[in-house]
Amino acid sequence: MKVLETPRLTLRRLVLEDAPFILELVNDAAWLQFIGDKHVHNLEDARNYIRNGPLDMYARLGFGLYLVTLKTGIRIGLCGLLKRDILADVDLGFALLARFRGKGYARESASAVLEYGKNTLGLKRTLAITSPDNQRSIKVLENIGFGYEQTLQLSGQTHATKLFVYPLDSSQTGAS
Questions:
Q1: pLDDT digits 0-9 by tens, 91-124
Q2: Is residue 2 a contact partner of residue 10, using CB atoms and an 8 Å limit?
Q3: Which of 67, 69, 24, 28 is nearest to 46 (CA)?
Q4: Measured between alpha carbons, how far is 93 from 106 in angstroms, rounded to an integer?
Q5: Contact 9, 109 (CB under 8 A)
Q6: In terms of Cα–Cα distance, which of 164, 147, 135 is closest to 34?
Q7: Of 131, 21, 35, 144, which Cα lies nearest the Cα of 77?
């Protein structure tokens, strides 16, 4: 089911048939470095990732991570909104396969999802989290209007995480 369209991209809900793509994406070196190992090592693991993540979130909340494709139908990544128990607000997430990075697709899809959240879902505030050394993602977030709020350590994690907010309240002490 198509959710969003941009000049170059289509964003749609994931289906179980996307398992081969998910298997490739979640085992990409940058995914493993910046997002972490989701223990998806075969097609059944990938189908379970889709079932227990995006499909469950669509059913519960009406939104989630969406498959990002070029208008030609080529799968290039994920982008969407998540509601994590460890964060107070919905957060924006995105990831692309290496061969599609650096072409503006992350910014294009993330911008569209951010606007969808604001205009269609009525979100007043959206968060984003990233590894402190993930400069590419930080640049995308800043380019679409997110501002750095603070560095924190999320429950259950051993590493620091940078928290970004949209829109950023410039009166906050962590604002830069």
A1: 999 999 999 999 999 999 999 999 999 999 999 9
A2: yes
A3: 24
A4: 10
A5: yes
A6: 135
A7: 21
Give me the amino acid identity at 111.
S
Measured CA to CA, the distance from residue 105 to residue 102 in angstroms comes to 8
| Whole-model pTM over 0.85 | yes
Q: What is the dihedral of CA 140, 141, 144, 149, to 10 degrees?
A: -160
Say if CB 57 and CB 25 are below 8 A apart: no
42, with CB counted inside 10 A (0-12, 13-18, 19+), is exposed
pLDDT digits (tens, 9 = 90+) for 123-175: 999 999 999 999 999 999 999 999 999 999 887 777 899 999 998 664 443 44
Structural domains of the chain sorted by starting position, each given as residue range(s) with its CATH number in brackets: 2-124 (3.40.630.30)
